[in-house]
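Side project, low priority. Logging it here so it doesn't get lost.
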Amino acid sequence: MDHFYEAWQEALAEEFFGRQHIGHPTLFYVDDDVERELRHGYGIDEPLALCVGKFLRLGTTEPYSALEDFRWRKRQQDKDGVPAFLPLLACSVMAASRMMNDQNHRATAYHSRFSELLTGDEKQLGSHHYEPISRMWQVLASWQHSQKGARGICTIPTPADLPSNRSMIGFAQSQALLSGADRSFMPKFFRSLREHGTTWPLPGETLLAQIEIRGMGQHFSKGFRNALQEEEFRPFLAKLIGNYAASWDGSDELVPTGVTRAELLVRLDAGRLSWVARLRSPEQKKRIELEDGVVLEQLGDTAYYEVTGLPAPSADTLTRGIRRDGDNLVLSRPSCSVLVLARDDVIGVWAGTDGFRPGEAHVVLAAPTAQRDVQRLLDKAATTGRSADTSKLAWVPQGWSMHKPVTFDDAVTLRRALEEVQGAVGFLQPPAQFKLRLEGGLKLAPSLDSHLYLRGGEPQVVLPDATEGTGTLLIDGKERPELRKGIAAGRPVALAVLRLEPGRHTVSYAGVEIGFATADQAVVEPKMTKVCGFTVVDGKASESLSLLVEQTLPTGITGADCTSAITQDEAAVMELCRRDADEVLFAAADGRLWTLEAPEQPDWWTERLPDTPAPLRFEADFHGIGGWLLERRSGRWKGRPVNPGTPKPKSAGNPRAWARAVLNAQQASVEPSWAAYVQAAKELDR
């Protein structure tokens, strides 16, 4: 990659996923005007589309492979950094922003615009080339969710949110629905509704209806108005604008540039309501002072802060909203008519949450204006807590109703009910899931193995939204009937009911596999503060042992003397590798990857071999390990098996680097054994 591509990656990462967006919804919106502003603002001399187009491998089955390779290299340097394919995704959004009727294209034609933008030819890149880009969008969404709001709240939809006929291009289109001018106008629109005493926040469908009823569409862009008329995209547009309304803190801007937003949450502890702030920032100060005597005191080493100086949560403070400013920080909470509390694992008490969590208990408080919507939702979807608690508790806001404990055992029914009821509860959708993952469980010695759990305390399996109901959940390669009910309900599936034996286990679903281990106990060796051994002076060890200090430790003798032990290593396998190869790799079956460097030629070669044969080769010995030896010459890969075995790339090493190397060399052999390696790499690359 040249410096222009890297410059565009850094500019897009800072502009759309910088830390100034903490706690705010972020749209990755790029059109021709935004591209020009970014180019001039960041001093980049090369246009975005031209920069990306240079690295396309046109005429191949994988035209974006060079960009994917660059992303993997960057990820090895910074695993938590923004995925390094933003320039390509930005071009996909630019193509979506150009979708309108003209002399050459229909308004729905996307791929021709995308191809023309990057290659100058509308037929070079077709729909069959686009699947890797849709995967990149899901990787970006998964990364942004993993940052827990520190890089902005994700607005990229789940595949399930998109119309079936736009399952791939819908990601780019979703980011082009609201232009910068649209987002700048939304606070004015929200305020005009709030001034009439409307219950807040309103669900997205109601907001869209208000735009139409009030004739305010003229204030929005043509792209937004077109999407508003499109039945297939209207539900997602409603969800998008509803999320903006739910996170609006009453300020004139949705995202004050360079200002961090601390979220003000309600906490229920010891029979009273109080405030706690959550600050999603890499720099956690112990104490923060804001205007009007409001002070934040950090709770331990967490992202939570005790809040003093604010009036206690009440019917008035909840429905009006709160905002306090400080030095580059705003503490705010938008007004609300429905308050949902769930157990917070970090602070150990009930605290406000962004959405319902299937299978968990909630406390739901509703203002008089929202009680009808809440009751309708609970009647349709709740397993427990349908009836309001009529006990007169002092901490319940005056006039508000309370339901507890409210649980939703069926996530599918919950999502459907939220869509049907809308009203004040319409924005409390469960968090989006983009990949198969494990959550909860009782971990044993995370320092030894982050996926080691106490037997009987196995984790739960969370299924991705995109594949929900379309695959078979396998535990250690077998379907377990006792889990079917949980899978059908769309909630996290508890593995503890299976009573698994101690050892390693696998969970697979829809072609993706993850692993974990269980044990009855784990021995954690204490950290050594003092080391005892024999010092070595002039090659001789001392007769008596002593404490080794820092200077003598590297040369001292410690532990058992095993010099006379006989090794039981497997016989080594020797392979000859070409010295003239551009690159020689060894992809082991367990996920480790080596680059083999040719050793220096010994001096005696020139003495004993005056006519040195070419190409010369060098030896590589493999002790007790199997895999594939890969050589690249003149841009083509060739491979040879070395006791290949069955590939299990998640057991060791760097699986992602292993996967990229195998996929790059997938044409190296036609043997079935190599096909198994390629398939394993594709599953890792999902």
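Brief comment: Confidence is low (pLDDT under 50) at residues 561-568.
Revisit when time allows.
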